[in-house]
Amino acid sequence: MEDAIAVRGLVVDRGGRRVLDGIDATVPRGSVTGLLGPSGSGKTTLMRAIVGVQVITAGTVTVLGAPAGSAQLRHRVGYLTQAPSVYADLTVRENVRYFAALHGRGRAEADRAMTDVGLASAAGQLVGTLSGGQRSRASLACALVGEPELVVLDEPTVGQDPVLRADLWARFHELAAAGTALLVSSHVMDEAARCDRLLLIREGRLIADDTPAAVRAAAGVDDLDEAFLRLIRAGEAGGPAGSAAGEA
Ligand SMILES: Nc1ncnc2c1ncn2[C@@H]1O[C@H](COP(=O)(O)OP(=O)(O)OP(=O)(O)O)[C@@H](O)[C@H]1O
Ligand SMILES: [Mg+2]
């Protein structure tokens, strides 16, 4: 089966600077792919290109077999932006039902999405009165409620406690098991370890595209946190991945 996302030679300039510099990557269906990299490395920009809201300079981005941003993808791709995008003057339930309706879904799907993100008990609360973490989850419920084939989540677990994060990751894997493709950005290494595959970017270039185990092996360490530090620093030194392994 074709990949959910195929990015070829992607170049993006923002504010007169090259932000993505020749990205080639694929994201398979039925699995969770992590997108990692330092702050400012281009994760959000890559996600924007995938959901079709980013002007690109060169390359192609194919999503579910169609060019990114095509009208036919509107109901097939869910996107959680890095900053929550929900209506503050509506309740959680009203927000989620509104997004459900946009995707031809009903109350049952809305209830399911609110339960999935742990917000069933806050369903009647105005989004403007939620805590930051709750607001993020309300936004996540809106991204998931349309039951999209591809889910692009920009730091979905920021501000969430460990129990909620574990629950959310369990749900992501359930969705993957049902055939959904998920692309999830994160700064948290224990989350990276939960991914089936990892894309690691640094300064707009892909420096690793592999399983967590292979990333550890490439860096020559068992700890994924340390592996990323080594891969990032190896790139900064201009050497091949893993070349910093003997430093200190
Ligand atoms: N609207 C914009 N105009 C100009 N430059 C931008 C704009 N948005 C982002 N950039 C720049 O593009 C680069 C990549 O930003 P991006 O938001 O993709 O990074 P990121 O990896 O998502 O970072 P973070 O982990 O902090 O969310 C950064 O150098 C950033 O300053
Ligand atoms: Mg970002």
Structural commentary:
The protein has 248 residues and is of the alpha/beta class. The protein has a domain at 5-76 and 148-237: Rossmann fold (3-Layer(aba) Sandwich). Helix content is 34%, strand content 24%. The protein contains eight helices and ten strands. The strands form two sheets. It has a six-stranded mixed sheet, with helices on both faces. Strands 2-1-4-5 form a four-stranded antiparallel sheet, with helices on one face. Helix 2 (92-102) packs across helix 3 (107-116), helix 2 (92-102) packs parallel to helix 4 (132-144) and helix 3 packs across helix 4 (132-144). It is globular and about 55 Å long. Bound molecules: adenosine-5'-triphosphate and magnesium ion. Residues 14-15, 19, 37, 39-45, 82 line the site of adenosine-5'-triphosphate. Keywords: ATP-binding, Nucleotide-binding. Residues 5-228 form the ABC transporter domain. GO terms for molecular function: ATP binding; ATP hydrolysis activity. It holds the Pfam family ABC_tran. InterPro entries: AAA+_ATPase (IPR003593), ABC_transporter-like_ATP-bd (IPR003439), ABC_transporter-like_CS (IPR017871), P-loop_NTPase (IPR027417).
Bound molecules: adenosine-5'-triphosphate, magnesium ion
* The named CATH superfamily of the domain at 5-76 and 148-237: P-loop containing nucleotide triphosphate hydrolases
**Could you say what the CATH topology of the domain at 5-76 and 148-237 is called?**
Rossmann fold
Order of strands in the sheet with most strands: 6-7-8-3-9-10
How many helices? The count is: 8
Would you tell me the structural class of the helices and strands?
alpha/beta
Q: Can you give the helix content as a percent range?
A: 25-40%
H/E element sequence? EEEHEEEHHHEHEHEEHH
Distance between the termini: 46 Å
Overall pLDDT metric: 92
CATH class of the domain at 5-76 and 148-237: Alpha Beta
Oligomer: single chain
Name of the CATH architecture of the domain at 5-76 and 148-237: 3-Layer(aba) Sandwich
Beta-strand share of residues: 15-25%
How would you sum up the major sheet?
6 strands, mixed
Low-pLDDT segments, ≥5 res: 239-248
Integer-rounded radius of gyration: 18 Å
Judging from the principal axes of the Cα atoms, what is the shape? globular
Structure summary, number of beta strands: 10
